[in-house]
Specification:
CATH class of the largest domain: Alpha Beta
Strand content: 15-25%
Mean pLDDT: 94
Distance between the termini: 56 Å
Low-confidence stretches: none
CATH architecture of the largest domain: Alpha-Beta Complex
Structural class: alpha/beta
Bound molecules: threonylcarbamoyladenylate, magnesium ion
Shape: globular
Number of domains: 2
CATH superfamily of the largest domain: DHBP synthase
Largest sheet: 11 strands, mixed
Order of helices and strands: EHEEHEHEHEHEHEEEHEEHEEHEHE
Strand order of the largest sheet: 1-8-2-3-7-4-6-5-9-10-11
Number of helices: 10
Number of strands: 16
């Protein structure tokens, strides 16, 4: 067990001396958890092989799953790559700082420990004053995956980070709730047609408005298409709470009829059920634990991970979740939900 230095910090009024202390930990090769607009990240010096290895250990993460490198200004990109294409420039100009990560061929200075052995490096500039400040004060790009133990839901609330990671890292900065709530969209813009490797906080529609048609890696759509996903991390079990999650194909009164019956049958066997639904549809459901995604896909993105974590805290055994339309941020939310369910669906049969 490490002694973890934990501090609260107001993103609107940053205590610069305190931030410098955490930057010192990064410079000395240590690990610091910090808030970003997407999810909390578990950071270390991206250019230091041993520091990067500490990230994998703290998360229990397989070492072939590459890390995202976070920068605070465009000039830092020069430390990581020397080939930035025209489409990448357009996306960076339009959406950075923000929830989109770009794939570049890596320079020798980036250790393979950071890139999971790949010759490419994933880079993003986060839109969060604490994240940007930490990178600036430490003077190095920071490699940071989501700050969860590998396979668990990503933390988007300060309290969830501290519960999971106290004792596993050198420092934790608690900076409130993450505004986006799902991880960044990972996109490879090097080919003729851009490919989304992971749907996330920036929608494919928004990207298409800037770079034209984009494709989504077909390997991430279902449990087994036979193809290896282009983002190595997408092949692992993900976002799984202890509760068993089922995604119901549908929403509203029709889905509620099916779910309510399942909840009732389970209750007779002593199985505690939870329901995840939109706030509009909440009135249809009858379950001991009912957690609302909110009114639109942006609300759902902000809430999904904390809901999954909360289900475990409430001792729920089985979770039934409504589906969202896979448009805008709905695509990222459904990707996280379906993965948390291990691709278990319940189809609604017409009576
Ligand atoms: O929003 C985010 O992206 C958060 C915050 C902390 O910035 N970070 C995050 O990192 O989600 P992580 O490590 O949990 O997810 C990184 C994803 C994985 O699916 C990984 O396989 C993919 O990005 N990735 C990283 N480097 C890659 C590369 N060189 N080529 C292809 N995929 C890559
Ligand atoms: Mg992750």
């Amino acid at each position: 067990m490490k002694k973890t230095l934990i501090s609260k910090m107001d993103p609107e009024n940053i205590d610069i001396e305190l931030l410098k202390k955490y930057a010192g930990i990064i410079r000395d090769g240590g690990t610091v958890i910090f808030p970003t607009e997407t999810v909390y990240g578990l950071g270390a010096n991206a250019l230091d092989e041993q520091a990067a290895e500490k990230i994998y250990r703290a998360k229990g993460r397989p070492s072939d799953n590459p890390l995202i490198v976070h920068i605070c200004d465009i000039a830092q990109l020069d430390m990581l790559t020397d080939s930035v294409g025209e489409k990448a420039r357009l996306v960076m100009e339009r959406f950075w700082p923000g929830p989109v990560t770009l794939i570049f061929s890596k320079k020798k200075t980036v250790p393979y420990a950071t890139t999971g052995g790949l010759d490419t490096v994933a880079v993003r500039m986060p839109a969060h004053p604490i994240a940007l400040g930490l990178i600036r004060e430490s003077g190095v790009p920071i490699a940071a995956p989501s700050a969860n133990i590998s396979g668990r839901p990503s933390p988007t609330r300060g309290e969830h980070v501290a519960e999971q990671m106290d004792g596993r890292v050198d420092g934790i900065i608690l900076g409130g709730d993450c505004k986006v709530g799902v991880e960044s969209t990972v996109i490879d813009l090097r080919g003729d047609v851009p490919v989304i490797l992971r749907p996330g906080g920036l929608s494919s529609e928004e990207l298409e408005a800037v770079v034209g048609r984009v494709e989504t890696d077909p390997a991430i759509k279902s449990a087994d298409t036979g193809a290896a996903p282009l983002a190595p991390g997408m092949k692992y079990t993900h976002y799984s709470p202890d509760a068993q999650v089922y995604v119901v194909k549908g929403s509203g009164e029709e889905a509620a009829r099916i779910i309510n019956r399942l909840v009732e049958d389970n209750a007779k066997k002593g199985i505690v059920c939870g329901v995840i639904c939109t706030s509009q549809n909440s009135k249809y459901y009858d379950a001991p634990v009912k957690l609302e995604l909110g009114y639109d896909s942006a609300d759902a993105a902000r809430n999904i991970f904390s809901i999954l974590i909360e289900m475990d805290k409430r001792g729920v055994h089985v979770v039934y979740s409504e589906s969202l339309e896979e448009k805008g941020l709905g695509a990222a939310v459904m990707n996280r939900l379906v993965k948390s369910a291990g691709y278990r669906f319940i189809e609604i049969q017409e009576d």
